[in-house]
Structure formats: structure tokens, C-alpha cells
Amino acid sequence: MEKPLNYEQTFKIEIVNEFANGVHAQLLNYIFNNGIDINDKSNSYVILLDQLSEFLNKDLFEMSIQELDGLKIFWKCMDELIGGITKENANG
Fold this sequence. Notes:
Blueprint: H1 7-33, H2 44-56, H3 65-91
Helix pairs in contact: 1-2, 1-3
């Protein structure tokens, strides 16, 4: 039997997914723009990018609305962290 579509959950998934991809892209652009080797697994930015990539691959439809709310908070924190990294390094 197919699980019924939950529009609130689907809406939250779309919001989290779009925001998360933007945060991930911000760090990825930073890595590329600063000539960091994406395969350098000893670089903390590459490690963070790999960890964020794992979060992007989670099946959000398996999460409850409360879990999605928590995940949204996680991505907001990551956005602040990466924004701080890119701003700090832009100021030199």
C-alpha cells in the first residue's frame, strides 16, 4: 500500500532541500575559488563538504516533520558557519 502524500511534509522537504543545496554550493564554491584540492581529505573544508554531502543524500521523505524542523536548524547553523568562513577569509 502506498503511503499517502503529506503536503506539509513535502513543503518542508522542498524548503530544506533548496536551502541545504545552497549552503553546500557556497562551501563548494569557496573550495574551488581558493584552489583547495577537493580530494585532499586532510583539509577541514573538504571534510566538512563531504559531511554535508552525506546529509544531502538522506531520504527526507523518511523523516518526520519534527525531524525536518531539526534538520532545517542544522542547515541554518551550517549556513552561519560557512558564511563566517567565507567572510573571514575574504577579509584576509
